[in-house]
Amino acid sequence: MMATKKPGRQAIGSGIRGGHKGKLAVISVRSVIFATVAAAVFMIGAAHFAFVRQNQNAATEEGLSFVATTNAAFRSPTEDDQSSPRSHDANINTSFRIQKNNLDSIHNADRKLENPDPATGRTERTVVGGAKHKIVEGGHIHQTSHEGEKYHIVFSTDCSAYQHWQSYVLFYSALKVGQEGFVTRIASGCSDKDGKAELEWHNKHIRGPMSDKFGLHLTPHFSSVKKDGEVVGDYEFFNKPFGLRHWMEHGEGMGINTNTGAMKNEDMIIVLLDPDQILLRPFTDDFSNDDEVLIHNSRKENRKFKVEHGAPFAQLYGLGARWQKFNLDVIAGKDSPAKEVSSQYANRHYPAGPPYLATARDMYQIAMKWTETVPKVHAEYPHLLAEMYAYCIAAADKKLPHQIVDSLMVSATGMNGEGWSLVDRVPAEEVCEYASNLDHKVHALPNVMHLCQRYMLGKHFFGKRRLPKDFFTCESPMLIEVPGDIALKYDYRIPPPPHKPPGEKKPVSKKIVKRETFMLCAVTTALNEASEFFKRHACEGVKGTDYSKSMDLWNVPLS
Question: What is the pLDDT of residues 270-317, one digit of tens each?
Fold first, then answer.
């Protein structure tokens, strides 16, 4: 299904959001229960926040009905195009066990199963038709133990083809950089048919050939906006907080101790990404190396050096402290600690965006408050950034000031901040090589590149909205390669059609040339290497498999 384009948002780091349309169907061994699920509140539309995320087209996303997960599982990004082989058969068993999940259980923090088996404490569920899998408590395929694993990256998506290719390249990038721990895609609101297809594709093309620590967690539909009991709109970004909380309560290796209400594995480091973020180097909990960790002087006082309980980290976004102007009595509560935060403290510790890093204990505390605040923020501020402001309020309410970091990502080449000074220090003639052959030991790298913009020099172009959604297939060609000396060849860009006037050359400064070079070379290499990996593992003997590097996105129409 195709994503619907909507105005996007950009930040001093940019992210993308996705919503989902679908129905929650929980199918039992003896009966079929259909329930329509939704998440809260009044929605009006998207509005620009000029400094923050203006150059994206947010995708409308559709997600899955029954809740399921494969081993080790995201959500959606956007671009403004005015301008995102082991066989899996051994992992498939003959029974399907799905825990009944519904939206009310999330809102009410009710984690009890309906009609649990007296012997196992689980509820038996079966999926109608198709291959069967062994689903364990929480709705996921049984996989590698989480015991002893320190890191778990998660990202939120729907089931659209647009999110599909983004998810694949994110998983591949984690494999390529040697990321420790688990990576899980949280897909919300898929239909039964789409969810089953995603599970099968994930097992065959990701979990099998890449890693059994790479998983998929399917959740109900969360993005409906209600007013007076009626659905009045859709706010796709509801899926991130609600999907995160659903995964933390029901996902494989996760869950809540029913006696204490605490996470079962509360020391694990959770890294929350957007789906259009590609790893350039592994995430760790150590931020002590000043050669690779960029923090503005205004945020260095009493800075933290390690992710631990009470010390979450996040990328700086251009959110400021605007959330303090909202009605915090209604949103957070009259006695909320968020009301006591000074403007200076808010600007220092809460303009946070993905990547977010926190212990599972802290992330769950934030997620619970986040799902409470986001409908109320959206009711007062029915615009694109409501979900991000709600995160700021939730973190402040839980007294969890973040260590804000500049260098977790690069995204918008014209922005100050981000991790661009790491790129700026590389000689122009070496930038493409630096981006194409990632080696953090040679030149320090940001953790991710965020594909929230269009990137171009001359007619060399990348915009994620133009990448065909069937890119990871046998028949699809790969992208044309970027010349290694592109930073020396061009000091201008030519926007692709339908730009007017056609062929216009727009001058680009030397600094921006290097940054555009980095993004073009890095994303082209990442996508082509991921495509080659796919073809090697899925296309052997398939007639018509295309290994050519002939796809020129400058000439591909905007989809």
Answer: 999 999 999 999 999 999 999 999 999 999 999 999 999 999 999 999
Mind listing the pLDDT tens digit for each residue in 210-263?
999 999 999 988 877 877 777 778 788 899 999 999 999 999 889 998 888 889
What is the Cα–Cα distance from 325 to 385, expressed in whole angstroms? 14
Q: Enter the pTM of the model.
A: 0.77
The C-alpha atoms of residue 431 and residue 482 are separated, in whole angstroms, by: 12
User: CA 407, CA 258: separation in Å to the nearest integer?
Assistant: 38
Retrieve residue 310's tokens: 């009470």
Task: Retrieve residue 532's tokens.
Answer: 């080659």
CB atoms near residue 451 (< 10 Å)? 32
Element of type H or E holding 366: helix 360-380
Interhelix angle 161-177/510-538, rounded to 10 degrees, is 90
- Quick one: pLDDT at residue 159? 87
Polymer length in residues for the chain:
559
- Rounded Cα distance between 25 and 67, Å, is 8
Q: For residue 84, which of 449, 353, 410, 451 has the smallest C-alpha distance? A: 451
Which residues, 6+ apart, have CB-to-CB distance to 30 below 8 Å? none
Q: Where are the domains of the chain?
A: 4-277+360-378, 409-555
**DSSP assignments along 263-312, one per residue:** BTTTTSEEEEE-TTEEESS---SB---TTT----GGG-TT---B-BTTB-
